[in-house]
Amino acid sequence: MLIFQGKALVYLLLSHVLQLFHDVKWSQKKSWGAANEDCVSRGAILVSIHSQAEEEFLSIYSKGTSKWIGLKHNPTEGGYSWSDGTALSHTNWGPGEPNNHEGREECVEMVSTTNGTFSWWNDLNCDAHQDWICTLLCLVCNSCVLCYKVTGTC
Ligand SMILES: *[C@@H]1O[C@H](CO)[C@@H](O)[C@H](O)[C@H]1NC(C)=O
């Protein structure tokens, strides 16, 4: 368990609770579903992104790669939803995206340039094998953020 005191520790928190699987060998890359299962097996979940600051941090952290994030098409909601259940408050679609090419692109990847200073989202076939980013499940309890390996309560 990791414990962080205070409020303005977003970056510290991000750097400690993220588990990046980027630049992995092709044979180790995963479909969206397998990446999601891998995160869950670690007491984590595919990362969700809620601000430009988080976007930029993640992009630098995983520069030069295309990786799954926790966003997936959700027909019942008529749009997209995060696998961790948080609200879709920030988006960063690339030009012309999401295009649901041939009606087969239900999952979303984040693409970052070589130096990571620019990134965008692209919808992609869920069976494509990509890198992925997990984030540990955390709870905000009073002024602390507690990150458990398993879901816990304050
Ligand atoms: C990052 O790369 C872009 C080109 O993709 C370039 O315009 C920019 O100056 C670079 N930034 C840094 C900090 O190297």
UniProtKB/TrEMBL annotation:
Q: Which keywords does this Swiss-Prot/TrEMBL entry list?
A: Disulfide bond, Signal
- C-type lectin domain: from which residue to which, for each copy? 27-135
Which segments does the entry list as coiled coil? none
User: Pfam families this protein is in?
Assistant: Lectin_C
Q: Does the record bear Cytoplasm in its keywords? A: no
Residues of the signal peptide: 1-19
List the InterPro entries hit by this protein, alphabetically: C-type_lectin-like, C-type_lectin-like/link_sf, C-type_lectin/snaclec_domain, C-type_lectin_CS, CTDL_fold
Entry-linked PANTHER family? MANNOSE, PHOSPHOLIPASE, LECTIN RECEPTOR RELATED (PTHR22803)
Q: Which protein is depicted?
A: C-type lectin domain-containing protein
What organism is recorded for this protein?
A: Labrus bergylta (ballan wrasse)
